[in-house]
Amino acid sequence: MPKVIVDPASRSLDHRFAVVHTRRRSRERFAEGCVTLVESEAAAIEGSDPRRQRYGAIVYGPSTSSEGMHIYYLVRWLT
After folding, report:
1. Are 54 and 35 spatial neighbours (Cβ–Cβ below 8 Å)?
2. What angle do CA 76, 28, 7 make, to 5 degrees?
3. pTM here?
4. E strands in 2-53
5. 9-13, long-range: CB within 8 Å, 24+ apart, which pairs?
6. What are the pLDDT tens digits along the chain (79 aa)?
7. Which member of 2, 9, 15, 39 has the greatest number of CB atoms within 10 A?
8. CA distance 30 to 27
């Protein structure tokens, strides 16, 4: 995970299960439009489809980038 300050008192930033659409799994952060939040680890794994470049993950966010976009940081891949 890139160097991100984790704020335990935050009500909006949190670790979340997600399905991430990406061509490169080497990336560490993803725009909000590439991330579909899901309810559980099982749902993230079930929603993954490597043929369609969709992978289950745990992400942290959403955070606002310096460009004003909402982004999520990769914590770890589930699939």
Report:
1. no
2. 75
3. 0.84
4. 14-21, 29-31, 35-38
5. 12/62, 13/60, 13/61, 13/62, 13/63
6. 456 656 566 566 788 999 999 999 999 999 999 999 999 999 999 999 999 999 999 999 998 888 888 999 999 999 8
7. 15
8. 8
Please answer whether residues 48 and 55 qualify as being in contact, where contact means their C-beta atoms are separated by less than 8 angstroms. yes
If one counts every other C-beta atom within 10 angstroms of the C-beta of residue 70, the result is 14
Sign of CA dihedral 58, 21, 44, 38: positive
> Residues 28, 75: contact at Cβ < 8 Å?
no
Runs of H (alpha helix) within the chain: 41-47
The strand ranges marked E within the chain are: 14-21, 29-31, 35-38, 54-64, 70-77
Q: Phi first, then psi: give them for residue 68, nearest 5 degrees.
A: 85, 10
CA 22, CA 55: separation in Å to the nearest integer?
8
